[in-house]
Every structure is written in structure tokens, then in C-alpha cells.
Amino acid sequence: MIYEGKAITVKLLEDGIAELNFDLQGESVNKFNRETLEDLKASVEALKGNSDVKGLLVTSGKDCFIVGADITEFGDNFKQDEEVIIEWILEANKIFNAVEDLPFPSITAINGIALGGGFEMCLSTDYRIMSEKAKVGLPEVKLGIYPGFGGTVRLPRVIGADNAIEWICMGAENRADKALKFGAVDAVVKAEALQEQAIAMLKEAIAGELNWEAKREEKTSKLKLNPMEQMMVFETAKGFVAGQTKGQYPAPIEAIKTMQKAANFGRDKALEVEAKGFAKLAKTTESQALIGLFNNDQLLKKKAKEFDKIAKPTKKAAVLGAGIMGGGIAFQSALKGTPILMKDIAEAGIELGLNEANKLLAKRVERKKMKPAQMGEALNRIRPTLSYAEFGDVDVVVEAVVENPKVKKIVLAEVEDVVREDAVVASNTSTISIDLLAEDLKRPENFLGMHFFNPVHMMPLVEVIRGSKTSEEAVATTVAYAKQMGKTPIVVNDCPGFLVNRVLFPYFGGFAALMRDGADFRQVDKVMEKFGFPMGPAYLMDVVGIDTGKHANDVMAEGFPERMKADFKSAMEVLYENEYYGQKNKKGFYKYEEDKKGKPKKVFDESVLELLKPVCADQKDFDADDIIARCMIPMCIETVRCLEEGIVDTAAEADMGLIFGIGFPPFRGGALRYIDTIGLDKFVELADKYKDLGPLYHVTDKMRDMAAKGEKYHG
């Protein structure tokens, strides 16, 4: 044994070949933490001092290669000053440089996922050979940073600057065929032949049949582009990426600038440029928010795993109500492999649900995300029915009928009589209290909410709503089924609107008051879209449906009259009374026409302003900061109330609910992270400026107390 550590071992194989094997003890995956970096440094020192070694093979002892850097550990380093971060990055890069500078050829056998620092490790060796099942990539931009272990330096020199810009700015995981096509790896082989073929290639390099020194020279030299080519590649890319990110995500643009600055330098000087840019990004609020989201996501997965311990398996599901929503739920369940009954009271409903599922599956075939045979298999997992005859062996039933408590209660009582006593029954209600719906049920312990968001196939979130009598087993089973469907479940407690809608409607309340005071809804939409929302409040109401919004608003006003019952007639109410329902009937705040692809396109209609005149003051321009404050303060305070009242367990879950449920800007990290970024003391001060607008703008006593103590919601 040449070296033995807790993350890496190095042993001598045949013909002077040393195998450096990553196998981090006590972990299911390999990752770059301090221990791994220290082991890599020590193992390279041992290799340099061993005269028997003629070539290096780098392998992994786990199913993946290396998933990347341990962001939970390295994220702590980002709290340091920029100079300290730069020093840390350059020290780490000395280790990767030492691998690259070994006095003999090297090759990495990529057996599984190699991302971020894992792929940067691969790039530090002379050759890379990849299993056909593996994936490689540099996804750091998704954390608001860019590659910091030499990725912006080595990748452009290996696959070309234009390709490297795409890989780094998109942050995608790339399959073996694409990696080979772009030249990121030198060969792709079957998994079982990986080590044998890697050794064979390494032997050729040792024998001088492959010019490994030339490969290395290319990686450590200047980029082979003349000044005109550099300008064309980098400036064009900057313009395109700026258009895509709308200035809200600095990391992709900074990555391009870094590659451009470093193009005329050799490796060591280029790495200094990379380190400076990396440190700058590590200190941005966007990076802190996106890393926070990554950590929040890990928490959600951890909590979901805990539920797995008591969850019952869902081998067969059912959905009641075969409309667009029911069809979407049936599609999602069938797509992910769980057979599902789709029941309705009429053939027309069944047809609508099947058409929805068929349309969604056909789109996947069209986009080559699935084969026609797989589409057929998925459709066969959906069993349409007009009766309860086949419900005897169903594990989970999702009720998705009209949002009316009387109708829901009738349907829930019916289904409770035909399913097994241990079957879980869930209501896909968006606002109605679970305890209210459970009042007449015989087995309320098996009943809860399972709130899907529309469109089901696109929205990642499912709110699992625990009623006061819901058992932990029912919650766990529903969480497991949501995961089975490919969704992110968040468990919340019962109240009107639960988490997402309860928080959304104060935002709409702020918007309604802006309209009352003379704001142009087009200006409000533009400001909030620039703030980072995928659509402004007026456009969002149109997409949700103004009739749906009116109903939900009434529920929220009844549930929280002191804050959410308006003392004025809103623009939404006027539109509703005049049957302006939004996209669904092509007229709302905007009117809707079909574009060339047959999709609804919003167009401004002057007549809507006339319609709204009786409830709106004369139009005037509002300052953008004023619009943001008036919309965001109510949303943020209501999120805090949900946390304080125990509707949601943690700040992490509250923020993830808003990001996955309403498209809260990810680079802002969620409502509570947004408050932390502003500073709770400053947020309270800001809210107090607007307190005359009413209770939606009144902070809680606990918020004031936390502000005085300098506390945060996240850490």
C-alpha cells in the first residue's frame, strides 16, 4: 500500500500502475470535504516519492465517482473575507495541480456521477474514460457560484471555450455520449469493461504510444484563440446569457468574464483569476440564498426519509374527479409507475381526464423523453371507471372534485365506505380546512390533505396537510406516495389556505390596495417580474383563474377576517362580477389570443381600465421600491405567522414551499431568507412605514423581539 487514509487509498497494481481509489468512509457517496482534500494532498506526495510508479489510475470505490464538494462544509468558508476565500481556493488548487504535474501519465475511470469538484478532479488527469452509464458536469452556477477547483481554466482548454461556456453556464449533467462528442472524455465503454480499458489506455501512454505530455501541455497553456476569436466567443455569450438570466443570477456572466480574463494566461495565473471571481460570487446574496436552498432541500429529503420508516407502500392509487386536475394526478402517478384508478360520475369527465393524461404523455414522446411503447405502458396504468367496484384494494385515494365543502363531504363519505379500513383518503383541496372536511368521517385518522398545484406535471410541490386527528402513518404514507410521484412533499398543519395560499393571498391583498390607490397593473406586473417572480400578480391571477381566486379569497377572508377581509371593493371582484375569469375564457386583467404555437398570449385591452375605474383611483406612477414593499411585506409577515403558529415546522420548509409552490424567486431564497437578507430590524422599520395601510402590514411581537436581539430565521 502506497497510501491509506479515510477517504483515499493508493496501491500498486501490475506494470508500475498505481490505483488511487476514492472511498470516503462512513458516507454513501464520495465528496470533496476537508478530509478528502487532505488525503488527496498526502496521497499525491506519496506518489511523487515512489520511484516504482509509472502511471496513475484514478477510480472510485462507490457507485458514483464524486458528487462534488461538500457544500454544507465549504459553505462555512464563504462567511470569511474575500481574501481568505481566495487563499483557501488557491491552496486547494495546489493539490489538483500536483495531480496534473505528476511525472507520469494519469487517467480517471469515471464509473458514475462526477459533478463539480468531482469532474474537476477528472479534468486534472491527462485522460478520462467513462462508463456509458455515468454523467459529468459542472453545476456550480445553481448555487450562485462557478467552478473553483480549476473548472473554468481546464474545461475551455479541453473542449473549447464555446462548449465550456455552455457546460458551465447551463450547469447541466451530461451523459456519456455528449461528453465524448464534446471531447470532455477520451473514451466511453461498458461499465464492466471500465477498469480494464482504462488500464489498457494508461499502458499505451506509458509506452509512448499516446502523447500524454501534449495533452497536459494543452491544459496548462493559454487558450488557443486569437483576440478576434476571443471577442466573438465571449462577448456573444455574455449578451445571450444576460438575456436569459435577466441580470438576476450573476454567476453565469461572472464565469464567462473569468474565462475571458484567463484566456491569455497559463494555468497558474488563470487559476488566480478564477479564485478572485469565485470569492466575489461566494459573498453575494444570490449565492447565500441558492446555497441556502440546497441545504433546505437536503433537510426536506432527510425529513421525508424519516417518514419512510412508518409509511405503508402505495401499490395502487385512485383519484376521484377526472377533470384537468384529476387527469394530471393520474398522469403523474402512472408516469412514475404507480397504477391508478380514475373515477368520475360521467363519461365526459373520464374523457377529459384521459385526454389530459394522453396529451401530456404524447408531448413526452414528441420531445423524445419517452418511447411510444413506454407511453402505452403508462396509459395502461390508468384505469378509468364510473363506479367504486375496484376500490377494495386501493392504498391511497386522492379526492379532486369541485372546491366545495358540501360536495367534497358527500364524496369523501362515499369513498370511505368502499375502501379498506387502513386505506388513506386525501383531499386535493387548496383552501378548505381538513378538520372541517373530516367532521363526518368514520376514520378521520386516515384522512388528510394532499394539495397538488396546477399544472400538476410541472409544479414540483405537494402540500401534505395534517388534520388534528390525522395519524402519523397516514402522513408518512402520503409523503411517500408524493415522492413516488416525483414530487417534493412538505408537511403542514391545518388552517385556511394551509401554507402556500395563506401566504399568497396577503400578496394579492397588497396588489389590490395598489390598484385601489391608482397603480397600473401593467407597471406592478413589470416591477414584480423584475423582482424575480415568473409573472406579476395581475398575470398570475389570470392564469390561476379569477373565479378560482375569488373563491379562495372568500375562504381566506372568512378564516382571517382581521387581516384578509378588505374594507373596499377590489378590481378582482369587479372582473369576477363581469365574468372576466382570466386565461380560461380569454379575458381578465389582460385579454388572451393564441400565438403561432397555439398557446395563450396576453394582450393589453384598454376597455378593462374603463371597467375598473369605479374601484380604482386615477392612475399614477408608483416608485418600484414602493410597489415591491406593498406587495412583499404582507407576504413575508404572513409567512412568519405560519412559522410562529406551527403551521410549518421550519423556516427552511416555509421558504421551499413558496419557491416550489408560487415561484418565489430562487435567488432570493424564500420570504424568510429575504427578510434575513434585508435584516429583520430594517424589515420591521420598513413595515412600520406602511402600517397605516392596515393589519396586513403589522409585524408580530415576536418579530420585534427578534429584531431587537439581532436574530435571523436561518441560522
TrEMBL record:
GO cellular component terms attached to this protein's record: fatty acid beta-oxidation multienzyme complex
EC class name: lyase
GO biological process, one term: fatty acid beta-oxidation
Catalyses which reaction(s): a (3S)-3-hydroxyacyl-CoA + NAD(+) = a 3-oxoacyl-CoA + NADH + H(+)
Location of the 3-hydroxyacyl-CoA dehydrogenase NAD binding domain: 316-495
PROSITE patterns per the UniProt record, alphabetical: 3HCDH (PS00067), ENOYL_COA_HYDRATASE (PS00166)
Key words of the record: Fatty acid metabolism, Isomerase, Lipid degradation, Lipid metabolism, Lyase, Multifunctional enzyme, NAD, Oxidoreductase
All copies of domain 3-hydroxyacyl-CoA dehydrogenase C-terminal, residue ranges: 497-592
One annotated GO molecular function: delta(3)-delta(2)-enoyl-CoA isomerase activity
Pathway(s) this gene product operates in, as recorded in its UniProt entry: Lipid metabolism; fatty acid beta-oxidation
EC number: 4.2.1.17
NCBIfam families: FadB, PRK11730.1
Sequence similarity: Belongs to the enoyl-CoA hydratase/isomerase family. In the N-terminal section; belongs to the enoyl-CoA hydratase/isomerase family.
Protein name: enoyl-CoA hydratase
Taxonomic classification: Bacteria, Pseudomonadati, Pseudomonadota, Gammaproteobacteria, Oceanospirillales
